[in-house]
Amino acid sequence: MASPEDITKLEAAAQCVMAPPDRVTAEERKNAENFFISLRNMKLPLNVCQEVLENTQNHFVMFQIVQVLLENVLRYWTNFQPQEIQAINKYLLEFPIKRLSEPLPNFVVSEFLKSAARITKRAAVSSEIEDSFESEDRTNSNMSYLFELLENLLSSNDDQLQALGLQIIEELATEFATSWRSSKISITWDFHIRAKREFEHTMLKKLLELALTSLSRILSITGSLSPSQIKICDKFLQVTTVVLSWNFAQRFLMIRLRLLAYATSSVALRPPSSWRDIFQNGEIISFFMQLHNKIRHIENLCANSMSSLIQLASCMGEVLESPHPTIPTIITEDDLSNDSQPPPPRPPKPHDIYIHRFMQCTIETFSAGILENEMLPVSNMVYKLFTYHPVMIFFRSPQPLISTFLNFVADTIIRLTGPAMQFAITKDEHTYHESLHNLLNCWAILIRSRDIAPKELQELINFQNEQIIVAFFKAVLSPPYGIRETILGNEINEDEDDEGDRKVFSDLLNPIGFFGQNSLITYSSNLIKVFNERLYQFLNFTATITEIELRTWQEDLHWILLLTSFLILESDSDYAIHLPDEVVQFCLEKYKSNEFQPQNFEDYILSCIRNPNPANLILPNADPITLIAGHIVTWNSLEHSALENTSVLQYLSPELLRSSLWSLSRLIAALTPNEARRHLSFFDEDDRTEDPMIELMPKIPVEGPFAQTFVEFILHRAFRVLQKLPGEKELCSEAVMCIVGLMERRSELVACSEVLFEYLAQIQLSALPARRNLIRALVLIGSSISKQDIQQKMYSTILQPLSDRFLSLPVDTKGSNIDSDIVDLLECFCGVTDAAQCHSAGVLFDFLNPIFTACVPLMQKKYESQLVVNSVLELFKSLTSNLMGFVDMGDQFNAFYTTLLSLLETYKKTQTAKYHTMLTPADEEEQTSDLVKIMEILSHCVSKCFLPLSDKADEMAQSAATVALLGLEMLLPIFSADFLKIPTLCDTFFSLLLIISELAPVCFARIQEQMIVDFLTSIRLALDGEFGMNHAVAGLQIINNMGTHFCTANDATPLVIQQLTALIEKVFDSCLQYSCEVDVFPDATNALYSLICLNKDGFLAYINGLLAHEENVRQREKLEIAFSKLLPDFELPMSRTGKRVFRERFEKFLNDVAGLLYLGQ
Questions:
Q1: CA-based torsion, 765, 766, 768, 772: positive or negative
Q2: What is this structure's pTM?
Q3: pLDDT per residue over 229-263, tens digit each?
Q4: Does residue 841 contact residue 887 with C-beta atoms inside 8 Å?
Q5: What protein family does this chain belong to (predicted)?
Q6: Residues in Cβ contact with 81 at an 8 Å cutoff, skipping those fewer than 6 apart
Q7: CA-to-CA distance for 1142 and 936, rounded, in angstroms?
Q8: How far apart (Å, rounded) are the C-alpha atoms in residues 971 and 969?
Q9: I need a surface site. Which of 187, 940, 996, 1084 has the fewest CB within 10 A?
């Protein structure tokens, strides 16, 4: 019994916890918090908890006591009778109702309802009532009482009662939709699935029916809704949102626990077959559409209503299957005789009826117009209709219905395109961007599937596709061809971090380009017409042109280039390396029908380069790709000439120059012949069926005079940008990427070009943006060509000057300029290592040897420069991850190994001291980037890819282990729990430990005793979930690797065995905690098995301690039997088979002890 003194003591502790900092000391607050924590560990009688709740007015005390009550109920569950459980649950649910006269705070009410939901679920999954799951009457007393209570609350006219009813539903839904993340009471994943299914059958459908009944009364009201009716409608719409958003459990036999998570992941509405009466006639669609039409002008009701419609659009599965599957009719020869009657038409399938009704209701509701706040939900609804259901269902619908629906979708896209692009371009507001993206993706589905549609629909789709293209063109072009408004210079956002239009609108430009590939004539004719006119305007510019006219012209040409580029390649990905098949097929058909006539493509392009004139671009009967290529090359030639003329250069903008170079790069990729792309790893030699007529298609060959001229034109084009506009970093990066793309496809021509060497002699490579990529491409070319003189020329032109300059730098001189030069040159050397291949590794190592050897004294002298330190470490990171993986020579490896040891020692002496004094490491992610690189270097040293297969592989592995040991001794004293709160550091640290534990676990037997204690403390924190799920998994894998090694190697020290044995409790807890995680459970059981093999007596001692718990005494006999099955008397083999067998036994063990075993605090 709770005395008044006890309640006073509780209230005093609560006041101390909640008091402002100036009222209590930190120690007083901590003591009060510990007092409440200790209450949860006490066996506090339930009647005492109820007395406290009834007699206290302190809300925090109520909050804490409810948690204590729940803890005791769950801990001593087997000691209660079902009637007592129901009484407790009823008390928790009714307590907030009785206090409505003096409403409780929401956090207290939420805790009462959350506890009731937890107990309701625990009762549903209790092994004591397990047999009831298979009974015909699937309604247990808890569920019946709950539904009766909810019906009364939601039907009440009291707003508070309605809100409370809705809150109960939300807490129940949350509880039954998730699994418990606590393993103390040994509830396993399969029981959660059963509880979820029980909730679906006994409660969820009734809640939906209750909501539909109440909403139907709202729908029958004529005129406007009163405020009270709006509130009632809102509450029941929220109920339907909860029900329709439910992730229904799948029906299958639970053979393996590790399969369950995959089977239950779903974002669609997939109710069970018992819900067919609600969904199969499609009336639910009509109901919600009519309801939405009534309330759409009330914003919050509209949002909830649209949420329900979106989920209904995703409805699929057995609920839409026919309850009586039709048997296919076998047609015989007699049936085909003249006298036979045609078979009667089959009745439409329930799935078809549902989708057809959805289309009809959508047209009726939204064809007159879509409100602004409806646009995104409607687009999501239509998107789910097309993506969650087979497209043939749409094509099987009556012709007038599908035609009207497709027109509705297309007209919505056309009406939306203008405002969406205007807001995005002129105001940087992407209000309608996502809506347009959803609808364009829907239309793309129709385009891809149009060949299986009836002919009339194909014609309709083609017609509307052309209208959509025209609408998009109008949205991005200025008058007279479009409606785009021009942004003045002072309105342009010049933030360098902003992404360009190419990336911002790629999700729209990709489908528009795809539409153009399927309506090539409409797309290309509109594009070429505007492109040609803008080229004429450029040639006729005068000094009197206004800023707004110039800006309008620049924006037009910029968008023309983007539209062109997204047409000639399948996407904005670098892996789209040829003309789209739709374009090639269309052009070949026109060539065969003589509508297109062969052109001399090489002469045409050469004239565009040498005499760029828009008057010469339009060729009669030429295919669109030829004309587009001519316009792109002509513009790039004009732009190249403008770079030489200061008076004309003012008409160009960096953004326009970037778009020009990018379009040129994509043109090269699109028109490269197939045979020139065979070297690309992602190219499939059989991915295109060659047609003899393919030779008529425009292409840029990889050899010959024309190819050489074209390569030199691009080199001139890109390098002049680097020379003239070196301050435009993004533009220069685009120019470098253009050169790199050219090198990847025509390396021999580029390497033999005198133009390349002329420009390389004129520019400073280390000063270029994207220099690392450029150096990598140059080195790859030099190593791939067979001509020795060219290789030597590239070496002396590119590599040797970089080396000479670096080794001659006055590193003793202080100053930012020197540091900047060092950093730039080191980045160039990183590009050299990135280009390492098996046949070139030895030569590149000899070149880089003096470089990385000089980096050790460089770090000693420049230890105060974080930039220099990071650059040196980045070079060594690149060396270990790329170049050294190909080195198979003992002398070279030993030389690098010696240098690396010296570097680590230097870093330890000059850099680690600062981390011992860092007070707020969580705010120092940038300052700890060097630590990340050190750990990545160590990871590469130990990883398999760093250890070459050679006669000295064992010696190299031992050397790598020594490097790893030195790294651990340097890092472990630094890393505390605070350091591990830095995400990047934490990720890299556990990745390093995992690699070492797998490949060089001997290191852990050699490090100092205190370090092994600190190391395993970090592992314990990871298992506690301090650093996230991924690191908990890494911790389990590390324990498994260490336990496996020390079991087989027998080199474990007593301290190591003692520390690993201390982790048995955590690992066993993880096996129960993550039994529902298909990616974690195998690692947890493997770690536990390795610890058992390492110290079986330690595990048995832990088990005996568990069984001695007061909470486990009553079920001790059953638990002992379960543990005996888990751990047989025979010897445990340390092997993969042994671990697999143990995991299977543990799965059975989980079922045997479900709800019986209590692990304690």
A1: positive
A2: 0.83
A3: 888 888 889 889 888 888 875 544 333 333 333 33
A4: yes
A5: Belongs to the exportin family.
A6: none
A7: 35
A8: 6
A9: 940
